[in-house]
Specification:
By secondary structure, this protein is mainly alpha-helical. The chain has one domain. Helix 1 packs antiparallel against helix 2 and helix 3 packs antiparallel against helix 4. The longest helix is centred in the middle third of the chain and has 28 residues. The two termini are 24 Å apart. The model has no long low-confidence stretch (mean pLDDT 90).
Length: 120
């Protein structure tokens, strides 16, 4: 159940990130902007892949909680920067967000894979 919830929330975060990114680009949607959006959703995709590889309940919980946290907080940061507290520096969020998300996903992946290897 937690795994399915993580998949659903992360997929919603990917869709929301693309939507907010396209909205932020306005009328000038360029391939470089779409490439930046792909880099922003890369931690989500990596997290989904790591979660799909987990077999132990303990590792599924850890990776699911990390994935839920980065999905919810990442989407909240984008919504806050683009709609609530709008200013000229709101677009920087698209560059800063993956910097915080990648270490969280990578640490949970290392923990999950080491815990699974240890149990075998």
């Amino acid at each position: 159940m937690l795994k399915k919830l993580s998949y659903f929330v992360t997929t919603a975060a990917i869709i929301a990130t693309f939507g907010i990114g396209i909205y932020a680009m306005g009328d000038s949607v360029k391939i470089s902007g779409v490439f930046i959006l792909l880099l922003v959703i890369l931690p989500y995709l990596l997290g989904i892949w790591v979660l799909s590889r987990m077999k132990l309940v303990k590792t599924i919980r850890v990776v699911s909680y990390v994935l839920l946290a980065i999905s919810i907080l990442g989407t909240a940061m984008l919504v806050d920067a683009m709609f609530i507290h709008t200013d000229a520096q709101g677009g920087v969020t698209f560059f800063v967000l993956p910097v915080f998300q990648f270490p969280a996903v990578l640490l949970s992946a290392v923990y999950g894979f080491l815990a699974q290897r240890r149990s075998e």
